[in-house]
Write a structure and sequence with these properties.
single chain; 247 residues; alpha/beta; Rossmann fold; 7-stranded parallel β-sheet; two-stranded parallel sheet; 7 helices; 9 strands; globular
Length: 247
C-alpha cells in the first residue's frame, strides 16, 4: 500500500485561489492534509471550513515569512500571467512580480525550515521549439513572446537549484506546465490567455470568431485538475529534477 506522505502535514498552497490551486486543495484535503491557502485575491475562493486562508500579497517578504511559518510543505503556484501584449506593454512590472513571487517565498520557506517545496515554472522558459525537452532549457533563450516572464521563471528555477545545493530541504521540486485551462480560467480582456480569450469572445457573440495567426501555430494545453494531480505525484515519487506537465 502506498504511503500517504501528506497525511497530517501542514501544507501551504500559495496562489491557491487560481485554476490549479482550486483543484489541488481538495485533493490534499482528501489525503488528510492540514491546508492553508495564501493569496491576494479571494474572489474565486471556495470557502471551506477545513482550510485556513490568508489574504496576503506574497510579493512582500514579511508576508511570505508569516504564511510559511510552521509549514511542512509549500506549493508555490504564484505567477502573474499575461498575453504577449502584456509581455510587451508592461514588461517591468510583469517580470518583477514573477521574480518576487519566486525568490521571496523560497527564501521564507528555507528560513522557516519547510521540508518539501514545489515551484511552479512554465513552458515559457523554453525557446521556440516543436518539442519541449526538460534538459534543453539552458541551451536556448525564451521566445520574445515569453521573454520577461520566461526569464523570471528561469531565475526562480535557478534559485531552487542553488538552494538544493546549499540548504537542508528534504526535497525540492520544479514543474513546468503547458498552457493551463479549466474552471476559474481568467477571462479578463487585459491579460487572458488564448483559451480564456476565445471563451470570452464567444460569450460576447463575436461572429465570425477571429483566431489570430495563419493556422500553422501549435499550442500545448493541459487541464487544471491534471496539473494538480501531476504535482502530487511529483512529490510522492520524489522527482527532484524539473519535469514538464504537458505533451
Amino acid at each position: 500500500m502506498k504511503k500517504n506522505i501528506f497525511k497530517n502535514k501542514r501544507i501551504l498552497v500559495a496562489g491557491g485561489t487560481g485554476m490549479v490551486g482550486q483543484q489541488l486543495v481538495p485533493k490534499l484535503l482528501k489525503l488528510n492534509a492540514n491546508v492553508t491557502i495564501a493569496s491576494l485575491d479571494d474572489s474565486s475562493l471556495n470557502k471551506d471550513n477545513n482550510v485556513d486562508f490568508y489574504q496576503k500579497d506574497l510579493i512582500n517578504i514579511n508576508n511570505c515569512l508569516e504564511v510559511t511559518k510552521d509549514k511542512d510543505i509549500v506549493f508555490n503556484l504564484l505567477g502573474v500571467t499575461g498575453s504577449p501584449k502584456i509581455n510587451n506593454t508592461n514588461p517591468g512590472s510583469f517580470m518583477m512580480s514573477n521574480l518576487y513571487c519566486a525568490v521571496n517565498l523560497l527564501y521564507a520557506s528555507q528560513k522557516n525550515n519547510v521540508k518539501r517545496y514545489m515551484y511552479t515554472s512554465t513552458y515559457g522558459v523554453y525557446g521556440e521549439s516543436p518539442i519541449m525537452k526538460e534538459d534543453s532549457v539552458w541551451k536556448t533563450f525564451p521566445s520574445d513572446n515569453d521573454k520577461y516572464a520566461g526569464w523570471a521563471k528561469r531565475m526562480g528555477e535557478l534559485q531552487v537549484e542553488a538552494y538544493k545545493k546549499e540548504f537542508n530541504f528534504e526535497s525540492l521540486h520544479i514543474v513546468r506546465p503547458a498552457n493551463i485551462y479549466g474552471p476559474y480560467i481568467n477571462l479578463n480582456p487585459k491579460n487572458s490567455m488564448v483559451i480564456g480569450s476565445l471563451i470570452r469572445r464567444i460569450i460576447q457573440g463575436e461572429n465570425p470568431l477571429k483566431v489570430w495567426g495563419d493556422g500553422s501555430n501549435i499550442r500545448d494545453f493541459v487541464y487544471s485538475e491534471d496539473v494538480a494531480e501531476a504535482m502530487i505525484q511529483v512529490i510522492e515519487k520524489n522527482i527532484n529534477v524539473p519535469i514538464n506537465i504537458g505533451s
